[in-house]
Design brief:
By secondary structure, this protein is of the alpha+beta class. The protein folds into two domains: about 110 residues, Orthogonal Bundle (Butyryl-Coa Dehydrogenase, subunit A, domain 1), CATH 1.10.540.10; about 80 residues, Beta Barrel (Butyryl-CoA Dehydrogenase, subunit A, domain 2). The chain is about 35% helix and about 15% strand. The protein is globular and about 50 Å long. It starts with 14 loop residues before the first helix and ends with a strand.
Length: about 220
Amino acid sequence: MVTTTAAPPRDEDTALARVRERVELVAPAINRGHLDRDREAVFSRDAWRELAGTGLFGSCLPEEVGGHAGSLTDLMDVVEGLGYAVRDSGLNFSAATHLASTGFALNGFAGPELRRLHLPSVAAGTSIGCHAITEPETGSDVLSMSTTGRFDGDQVELDGLKTYVTNGPVADLAVVYVRTSDTPGPLGLSAVLVPRGTPGADFGPALDKTTLRTSPSDSCA
């Protein structure tokens, strides 16, 4: 026998409840033409700006960087509303990647200087984030990745190839996962922030896909 419990009552007088309401308000404008964009594999920066204007991208980021300081549960509620209201599944996928893999990672694990420099634009949506884990030979088996990072003072020299990087072709910031020591398991891995334009970083052209075509992916080296 399966026993379920009712969802707790939703507090409609919170900052994130208002974000969800704003998402519902802009959804009709975003939804117009979404099937054409999918057929043509077009990432809509206008639709992205509409989402950014709702405050969505600051959902779980601190108030001092322009966020709403929501909990993970709050964020899931807002993203659930996004899924119900916005029909562009690729755009939703790109937004979720930006929220989780860039905003959440930077806020939780970056140093104070990186948070100060980049979180305001991540929260505002004026920077687009991606993360690079998958590799051609090992897929998304993180512990088998071959991309390496070598520390040189406060810099890290990366060597390797990532693929299927969601948001890669349009991203301003990439969180790249690499092996930085021979220590077995996850303790030998590091996440490195790579802004677009970093010398030696190559963000490739968009890959052709059969689904989520409005969410561009690429290979990065």
